[in-house]
Amino acid sequence: MAEPPPGIIPAFLSGTTMEAFGLTELTEEAPFTRVSVAKILGDITFKGVISDWQPFTKQIQGYKNGDVPAEELELLVVQDTDMIYDQNFYFCITEEAAQSVIEQFTAPGAAGEG
């Protein structure tokens, strides 16, 4: 298992969570999306310890992105089909990490490379 870089948190997300957060639409060509922090925190509040996001509550609550209002914050969530970080997804808790991941997948010739 590769050690995740700063700002990246590996996570196992169940099929139910994937469906609830629109993650079943992700593909190898487009393996990432933004997910509302408010929606994630709502899932944690509603499900408690059975939420797939619950182990990461503190990191998610601490996420900031400049002057973006809390209710508009979105985490970058990435499907890790190769399980590089030993889980089926990872998410970015810094905008720097998110931009780095986006650049990896959008750089010329990057699609489909693993």
Entry summary:
The protein is α+β, with helices and mostly antiparallel strands and 114 residues long. It is built from four helices and four strands, in the order βαβααββα. It is globular.
Radius of gyration from CA coordinates: 14 Å
The residue ranges in which pLDDT falls below 50 over 5 or more consecutive positions are: none
Strand content: 15-25%
- What gap, in angstroms, lies between the N and C termini? 14 Å
Report strand order across the widest sheet. 1-4-3-2
Q: Count every beta strand, where a strand is a DSSP E run of 2 or more residues.
A: 4
Question: Helical proportion?
Answer: 25-40%
Average pLDDT reading: 93
Task: Based on the model shown, name its key terms.
globular, 114 residues, alpha+beta
What report would you give on this structure?
The structure is a single chain. With 114 residues, the chain is α+β, with helices and mostly antiparallel strands. It contains four helices and four strands; from the N terminus they run βαβααββα. It has helices at 15-20, 37-47, 57-61, 95-106; strands at 8-11, 32-36, 74-79, 89-92. It has a four-stranded antiparallel β-sheet. The longest helix has 12 residues, at 95-106. It is globular. The two termini are 14 Å apart. 18% of the residues are buried.
Helix and strand arrangement:
Layout: E1 8-11, H1 15-20, E2 32-36, H2 37-47, H3 57-61, E3 74-79, E4 89-92, H4 95-106
Antiparallel strand pairs: 1-4, 2-3, 3-4
